[in-house]
Amino acid sequence: MKALLSHAPGGPETLRLDDLPEPEAGAGQLKVRVHAAAINYPDVLIIEDRYQLRPPRPFAPGGEIAGEVSAVGAGVEGWSVGDRLIAVPGYGGLAQSVAIPVTSAFRLPASRSFVDGAALLLTYATSIHALYDRGHLEAGQTLLVLGAAGGVGLAAIELGKARGARVIAAVSSEEKAAAATKAGADATLVYPRGPFDRDGQKALSEQFKAAVGPKGADVIYDPVGGDYAEPALRAIAWGGRYLVVGFPAGIPKLPLNLTLLKSCDVCGVFWGAFAARDPAANAAHVETLFRLWDEGRIAPVVSATYPLERGGEAIAALASRSVVGKLVVTLD
Angle at which helices 174-182 and 151-162 pack, to 10 degrees? Predict the structure, then answer.
């Protein structure tokens, strides 16, 4: 089978399309014929050895897939060859076949395409866990979303609106502001690109404060980090929740006196660990996501697709932080 492989640490240009033996479905596993694999920020990190998961090389990146079962391992019940599914295996998705634990698989309805299915789980499951479990977002509250036109950002907008919140979307361009508005944001702000000096951070903080209003943001969803984090935290409401989701702009250092002055919480969001520790709660969230999708209240935005041999280009595009929504590699 064909696979796009990382043989040594490096950027997307180091990936090579090679042949690998077909995997086998071991005990408790499903062998999946991959039809589509979404690209996410962990794919940028994992090939450079900057992610918490470091697979033995050579390996294929691609942590989020959609496909159909081609073999069922020993001890697996309820699944048959030909069943359609989505899953987040962590890596291995940029290959024509992959073996995954059955516990990571969720059924994909026949009415949904493999491309859209591949773009759902990681971003929306992360965002629903962040907003509902960690952020305790309630109807009528104000939600500030940074990086609001990326995959997790658009998901946070839609899920915030589904919860009945007022959503303020912070983005880096007018094009991204239009995408955030289309996703349902009540208001948008376009911030400059960092890094920022102290005056720049102060100006950004005033921009956030003006956008969220005098009471501040009850929940701040931050998948960006870097120099954007402290200015956003300064715009939080009394008793607010600041959600730490990711760091493509760098790992920030927050002055903890701000948490005292606002009596606010800084909450880490690690969806993968949550799903492993509480699979029943995660499955309930996924069921909610499919219901909201059926109701038309959420819908993955796929801005471009790439064939397998150009999967490295998709990872490079995502690393540039210029992408709206999701990128998907197709293997059909």
Answer: 40
- Any residues with CB less than 8 A from the CB of 204 and at least 6 apart, and which? 191, 192, 196, 227, 228, 231
* Residue 269, both tokens: 């969001």
- Residue 234 CA from chain centroid, whole number: 25
Residue 139 Rama label (left phi>0; alpha psi -120 to 50; beta): beta
How far, in Å, are 165, 219, 251 from residue 211 at the CA level? 15, 14, 24
Whole-angstrom distance, CA of residue 63 vs CA of residue 303: 18
Per-residue model confidence as pLDDT tens digits over 228-239? 999 999 999 999
pTM above 0.90, yes or no: yes
Determine contact, residues 112/19, Cβ cutoff 8 Å.
Answer: no
Give residue-wise pLDDT tens across range 190-248: 999 889 999 999 999 999 999 999 999 999 999 999 999 999 999 999 999 999 999 99
